From TrEMBL, chains A, B:
Keywords: Cell membrane, Cytoplasm, Hydrolase, Membrane, Metal-binding, Zinc. This is N-acyl-aromatic-L-amino acid amidohydrolase. It comes from the Eukaryota. Binds 1 zinc ion per subunit. Its cofactor is Zn(2+).
Length: 317, 317
């Protein structure tokens, strides 16, 4: 890894231009920061950042109107190849139809017609600060991430990598040639906090600044990014009827990304007993995320890995 | 006021016994602390605290199952005399019917048959710590409040008084002969936090402890309680179409009960302007409560008042 990082920092890599970026909000209808950021950008008629064209989409307007994460199915699990190509019938959930519409508008996923960069804005009830979430180790994404990490100081900034092939990548950002989700919390579902709104706005301003610099010929030095790579999910303990018997222990609550070691408390049963973690040292994230109760996920666990990325410049036509 | 307080501390007042207490949760289906406290008490078959009989009720099971505040109408606005006596038709909302059922079971409101003490458990997304909310200045409520204020140290404890006559009192606790809501936050809707769960459990344990002492003949000294008395609500600024144009300013966010003075920032518009408070010095509470967006309430404002209460003992039959 070190050899490759050093090597990549010396050699400059030329990468294709980013002509357009699409910023999406409201993929989950009760994660309000993205909804209101997108609406404000539409009101301000923001269409260009330098030579890069900027579009915005409110992706699940029905769920936004209902004030809920989704109406029939989680939209952000609908962008797999299987669901994007499934035939539409009367019983097809609204969100599957909407995913296919979005794929036609912003993709098709994996094609030359897809938008160059797709950014999807999310919130979490977990204390995760600002996270970039992405599938592939992609130079553009890692460079933008590094630029934000270096320039945004109001909250912790972290990278989360989901090691899933593109065909099975289930979330909206996988539709773009490059793409990532910006996940910011803690913010309750259905609530809009000014601090979170301002952080996301700052992250987007920095992203557009980076894109302007990149498209105007600025070259960016290589380096490394520490990313949390998803390992597994942990469910709540349950009784024989399948009902949860415990809640996240208060020592784990709000401690996303703090290394969890064998013996650390993770759950408190409703009757007051403490349950401890057993297993290899890993980093918890999405701790006590509201929307994951129904998915039977109390928290995710990750390994920390270092990825190197090269010095890059735009490849002119 | 001072004369009355001193006087009340010297004279002992004898008040009727509390034979029974009902603890309610799930009046708002996505405020989970009460739901799980009540379920755990039912599982433990807790039926007595000394000589005081204890019952528990999950008050809006349909809303709990749906994971929403309510299904058709806010249940905790249905306990006015008008709604409790309105004829049931096919178009009557579920929650009005449920309020009438609960009134038959736990009331009738204002009657000798009503439960002696009704405690309703709530959560808020606002940073309010633990609050007692009540209508009338009632010796039992003030004594229990004082006992909790003196013995619970993990979060700030405050009293909120709503100066509304009983006939118009709209919330469940008004059905009991004595009654108060315990409102604890911040906790996102649909999320269960261990710290909040433990605080509410501690407050209930202290309440039951007080009731045991009182019913066994212990007398309690008089004193004073500082309570925040509701003055008015403040809406978000809106455009000509009625849409909110701003969010709570980050200096006001999480600063419930911090005196608001003319000139203090209260809103940030989506385009970044700051709007300031104008008016008399008052105390904000329910700042950025999720459920109040639809009620057009950004925050409430209160005056702080001091109420005295007498030295009391139980009046034996």
């Amino acid at each position: 890894m070190v050899d490759r990082a050093e090597n990549s920092q010396m050699q400059r890599t030329f990468v294709p231009p980013i002509y357009n970026v699409t910023i999406c909000g409201g993929t989950h209808g009760n994660e309000l920061t993205g909804v209101y950021i997108v609406r404000e950008m539409q009101k301000q008629k923001m269409e260009k950042a330098g030579s890069v064209s900027v579009t915005t989409v409110e992706t699940n307007p029905r769920a936004v109107a209902a004030g809920r994460r989704y109406t029939e199915m989680d939209l952000n699990r609908c962008f797999t190849d299987v669901l994007l190509s499934s035939p539409i019938t009367e019983s097809t959930p609204y969100e599957v139809k909407r995913a296919q519409e979005l794929n036609a508008q912003l993709g098709p996923k994996g094609s030359a017609k897809a938008v160059d960069l797709l950014i999807d804005l999310h919130n979490t009830t977990s204390n995760m600060g600002l996270c970039f979430i992405f599938y592939s180790i992609d130079w553009i994404t890692l460079h933008i991430y590094k630029y934000i990490e270096n320039n945004l100081n109001s909250v912790p900034v972290r990278a989360i990598q989901l090691d899933i092939p593109s065909s099975e990548a289930y979330s909206l950002e996988s539709v773009g040639k490059h793409g990532f989700a910006i996940e910011v919390g803690p913010q309750p579902s259905g609530v809009l906090r000014a601090d979170i709104f301002n952080v996301v706005k700052e992250a987007l301003d920095l992203t557009l600044q980076w894109l302007q610099k990149f498209s105007s010929g600025h070259s960016f030095e290589g380096g490394t990014v520490d990313a949390y790579t998803f390992v597994k999910s942990v469910d709540y303990p349950r009784d024989s009827a399948g009902k949860a018997t415990a809640i996240i222990h208060q020592d784990l609550q709000d401690n996303d990304f703090k290394l969890l070691r064998s013996g650390d408390p993770i759950f408190q049963t409703f009757s007051g007993d403490i349950l401890k973690y057993e297993g290899e040292d890993l980093y918890p994230f999405f701790v006590n995320e509201c929307a994951y109760y129904e998915k039977k996920i109390a928290f995710h666990l990750a390994q920390k890995k270092t990825y190197s990325f090269p010095h890059i410049s735009v490849k002119n036509d």
